[in-house]
Design brief:
The complex is a heterotrimer of chains A (245), B (190) and C (456). Chain A has 13 helices and eight strands. By secondary structure, chain A is an alpha/beta fold. Chain A folds into two domains: 111 residues, no CATH class; 120 residues, Rossmann fold, CATH 3.40.50. Chain A has a four-stranded parallel β-sheet with strand order 2-1-3-4, sandwiched between helices. Chain A has a four-stranded parallel β-sheet with strand order 6-5-7-8. In chain A, β7, α12 and β8 form a beta-alpha-beta unit. Helix content of chain C is 52%, strand content 10%. Classes of the chains: A alpha/beta (245), B alpha/beta (190), C alpha/beta (456). β8 of chain B pairs antiparallel with β9 of chain C, so a sheet runs across the interface. Chain C: Keywords: 4Fe-4S, Electron transport, Iron, Iron-sulfur, Metal-binding, Repeat, Transport. Chain C: InterPro entries: 4Fe4S_Fe-S-bd, 4Fe4S_Fe_S_CS, FTHF_cligase-like_sf, Helical_ferredxn, LUD_dom, LutB/LldF, LutB_C, NagB/RpiA_transferase-like. Chain C: This is 4Fe-4S ferredoxin. Chain C: Pfam families: Fer4_8, LUD_dom, LutB_C.
């Protein structure tokens, strides 16, 4: 099984530890992981702003960089969703079709491909799980509170495998944090308010660490937490799953 | 002519034909009992009673509502204080209690089907201060699919599902019973 | 373009009120969840509703003609209006024919969209909105802020003050029960005196030629059954093929809207009352254009339950008026650009694309996907602000060139690490208004990888 690791641009630049945790975790689980040189971004920032035409060279670069692997694994539900959902505007070559099926979020890869059932990880803390929207409602990594379906979310399942983790009960299980890519810049007031409200929910539940499958949501929440001087930490779920028992 | 214009625009714009799905029979695990109907109706603010507990319909109405009120009803079993055949719709404004026979009850939402033929005046169930619907107990169905299968919506010029007393929550989401229509709904099962 | 952001920022200034608004609507969303989750076949019903609407839209002309023929058989007069102006003229002429001057109206987003009230008032007619929420905002001379709960943005103190001025209630009285009773007394007189009643339409049945009107207050019925003339105004998309399909839609509508198992009154009108007259006005007003847009025609499935507003984290915190359109919220943001792309070019951006709207939608409209698609059209047609467009062109160039990307990343990290705080957190940095920037690490993941794993 040839596995490529895709580390999205903002993780690469600002949260290298998330990339490292993802790589180490996959290696720990026996995978040989390739990290294709020259990778950049999935193109979502332009596309979500309405400029998907300007994103086409980035899409093509992604396809060129990641062709020839069985799976592309990324610690971002949002980027995986973007490749799978929105790479429909470029020519649907075999390589594109393959990548639109096989670009997977880390949690999907762990549960659906590796069929992970337990992890040797330990993280003694009260953890608040933030369900990033693109993972939850785009990739369907969980049922979502709106729909009448009964199934645990992928992130919940994985966190439950970590010793010491206590998952907090939130009042609003999966409300958006307000990041939304360029939304955070276009509507800074609403965006910040949404983030503050999410944080308040976690704080009420006594959360010590907020985790998510998307670092972008956490970057937004961390920015607010640090401004507030809050002791609550943020950690990508890969960092928790990669802790040592 | 706008009609021709609109139809032409639709023909040019409409998508390729999509099939009409068959609505399956949704078999709830529980039968459509009086108990389920009663508890769901109660949640919407209706009161459900059985006539036999009052030794008959007329007694039930007179017991639930004090004696010195005006009643309007097409039912022969109960004395009507107003001659419905003679009255105009606006004459019904003073009616305290309307007692009207109903055709069908729906367990899943406590709704009751009433037609123009049952009311004499369409406005009667709405304009009266209080409403009593008289429903045969064996006419309770499970859900809206069964209900629509059993009624014919154009049997008369007007028919309505009534699922409780008139209500509103338009001021700060506070529930207030008795908006424009009846202030209370009693369903008497016979 | 920035309209929504500006209005939202103004709304949010009063944080306590924003929280109150958010929680009021979240309460409705929670009730909706409870009601929906109580129906095991809920997801199946949504799928059925969606498919029934797909089918109906693909045969819309046939169903409209069948509907008209049947309605005529029932003695109902049917009119067709291409746009808002024609709709208003038709309604006016029907009223004139019947010498009607005092009109009671129940809630209808279509007549709101057409500006019927203002039109009729200009013709010296008296129009009274009879839904309590509608009456409140009519007295307050404001547009509705929500399609199901038009006065959801107002506090009871504000309603109390308004009623004190307009309906002579006691000064300082704020009890909803008391205020509702005052409205009841006041509206009852209007019902009894009305010459005509106008309603919207929730569903129109092709098979029987009748219309279905749903209310909780019973105001539509008080109007139509007392006034000698009843007029029902409907968009062309309200058609359902058969009565049996009402089973699917009535189960979805109230649960989605307010979490009730049913609206209190689900009224089926087929013929005029004895001695009365019944008219139906079928309106296009841009709907056929929307039908011709494959990416957006799905929006015509909407049954106006408002669930997408109640769940929308932006709507809840910005209020309905921030959208400046008859239908606000997520559904409004995909309907309005089809009417005036330039004017409403900001609305598809008033979203994080979280997708909650699509998942609560009882007819499975892919709302957030349409928002994404409108954004593409808005950019293509040149309605993005220049600076934004240029920054996206630049980003597109950088992110498709590994060398440029590496350099840009390095300098961004350098800037956030070494530049003095006041230079970074300046007024142009909207991110930094309420948030810290991420702490820039010394090396990127790619740099770490080259050092630590380059051998492999």
């Amino acid at each position: 099984m040839k596995i490529a690791l895709f580390i999205p641009c903002y993780i690469d630049q600002f949260y290298p530890q998330v990339g490292i945790a993802t790589l180490e975790l996959l290696e720990k689980l026996g995978c040989t992981v390739h990290f294709p040189e020259g990778q950049t971004c999935c193109g979502q920032p332009m596309a979500n702003t309405g400029c998907e035409r300007d994103a086409i060279p980035t899409y093509e670069h992604y396809v060129k960089t990641f062709s020839g692997y069985d799976y592309v694994v990324t610690p971002s539900g949002s980027c995986a969703y973007h490749v799978r959902k929105h790479y429909d505007i470029i020519e649907q070559t075999g390589a594109v079709q393959h990548l639109r099926k096989r670009t997977l979020d880390l949690s999907e890869f762990l549960l659906d491909v590796l069929k992970v059932e337990h992890l040797d990880a330990c993280f003694p803390a009260k953890v608040g799980l933030h369900q990033s929207c693109h993972g939850l409602r785009g990739l369907r990594l969980g049922p979502g509170s709106e729909r009448n379906l009964n199934a645990p979310s992928a992130l919940h399942t994985l966190l439950s495998m970590v010793e010491g983790v206590e998952i907090a009960e939130l009042e609003r299980a999966d409300e958006c944090c307000g990041f939304g890519g360029t939304f955070a810049i276009n509507e800074p007031d609403i965006s910040a308010k949404m983030g503050k409200d999410r944080i308040a929910d976690h704080a009420r539940a006594g959360v010590e660490v907020i985790t998510a499958g998307d670092m972008s949501c956490l970057m937004h929440l961390e920015g607010l937490l640090r401004r507030q001087g809050s002791p609550i930490q943020v950690k990508h779920i890969a960092e928790i799953l990669n802790t040592k028992a | 002519m706008s009609k021709a214009h609109i139809l032409k625009a639709i023909q040019a714009a409409k998508p390729v034909p999509c099939p009409l799905p068959v609505v399956p029979v949704f078999e709830a695990e529980t039968p459509p009992t009086r108990e389920i109907f009663g508890s769901v109706a109660a949640q919407s603010g209706s009161r459900v009673v059985r006539a036999e507990d009052f030794v008959g319909l007329a007694t039930a109405v007179r017991t639930i509502y004090p004696k010195d009120i005006s009643i309007a009803t097409p039912l022969r079993a109960i004395q009507s204080d107003i001659d419905l055949q003679q009255a105009s719709p606006a004459d019904l404004n003073g009616v305290d209690v309307a007692v009207i026979p109903a055709q069908l009850g729906v367990a899943e939402n406590g709704a009751v089907w009433v037609t123009e033929a049952d009311c004499v005046h369409r406005v009667l169930p709405f304009i009266a201060q209080h409403l009593v619907l008289v429903l045969p107990e064996d006419r309770i169905v499970r859900n809206m699919h069964e209900a629509y299968a059993q009624i014919k919506i154009d049997d008369t010029g007007f028919g309505v599902f009534i699922a409780g007393p008139s209500k509103t929550a338009d001021i700060e989401q506070s529930l207030v019973i008795g908006a424009q229509g009846a202030r209370s709904l009693t369903i008497i099962l016979i | 373009m920035k309209e929504h952001a500006t209005k939202a920022a103004a709304f949010i200034q009063d944080e306590a009120r924003t929280n109150w608004h958010d929680e009021s609507l979240w309460f409705v969303r929670s009730k909706r969840d409870k009601a929906a989750h109580g129906i095991p076949e809920w997801e199946q019903l949504r799928e059925l509703a969606s498919q029934i609407k797909d089918h109906t839209l693909s045969h819309l002309d046939e169903y409209l003609e069948a509907f008209e023929a049947k309605a005529k058989e029932n003695g109902v007069t049917v009119h067709w209006a291409a746009d808002a102006a024609e709709h208003n003229r038709i309604v006016h002429s029907i009223l004139q024919e019947h010498n009607a001057r005092r009109i009671v109206k129940s809630k209808s987003m279509l007549t709101e969209e057409c500006g019927l009230n203002e039109y009729l008032e200009e013709q010296d007619m008296e129009v009274i909105d009879t839904d309590l929420g509608e009456r409140i905002i009519q007295l307050k001379e404001e547009p509705p802020s929500h399609i199901v709960m038009p006065a959801i943005h107002l506090k009871k103190e504000e309603v109390g003050e308004l009623f004190h001025q307009k309906l002579q209630t006691k000064k300082g009285a704020t009890d909803p029960q008391y205020l509702t009773e005052a409205a009841r007394q006041h509206l009852r007189q209007s019902f009894l005196q009305a010459d005509a009643a106008i309603t919207g339409v929730n569903f129109a049945i092709a098979e029987t030629g009748g219309v279905v009107v749903c209310t909780n207050e019973g105001n539509a019925d008080m109007g139509t059954h007392l006034a000698p003339l009843q007029i029902h105004c409907m968009g062309i998309e309200k058609i359902l093929p058969k009565a049996e399909h009402l089973g699917v839609f009535t189960r979805l509508l109230a649960r989605s809207a307010t979490g009730q198992p049913s609206t209190i009154f689900t009224s089926h009108h087929h013929k005029a009352k004895e001695g009365g007259a019944m008219h139906i006005v079928i309106v296009d007003n841009g709907r056929t254009t929307q039908l011709g847009r494959p990416d957006f025609r799905n929006s015509l499935k909407c049954i106006r339950c408002g669930a997408c507003m109640n769940t929308c984290p932006i709507y809840r915190r910005s209020g309905g008026h921030s959208y400046d359109s008859t239908v606000p919220g997520p559904i409004g943001s995909i309907l309005t650009p089809g009417i005036d792309l330039k004017k409403y070019s900001g609305l598809p951006f008033a979203s994080t694309l979280c997708g909650s709207c699509s998942d609560v939608c009882p007819v499975k409209i892919d709302i957030h996907e349409q928002l994404y698609k409108w954004r593409q059209i808005i950019a293509e047609e040149g309605h993005l602000p220049t600076a934004k467009k240029q920054s996206m062109v630049m980003a597109g160039k950088v992110l498709s060139r590994p060398g440029w990307y590496k350099m840009a990343g390095k300098s961004a990290r350098w800037v956030t690490r070494w530049l003095p705080r006041p230079l970074i957190y300046n007024p142009l940095n909207t991110w930094g208004k309420a948030r810290e920037l991420p702490e820039a690490p010394k090396e990127s993941f790619q740099e770490w990888y080259r050092k630590n794993r380059s051998a492999s």
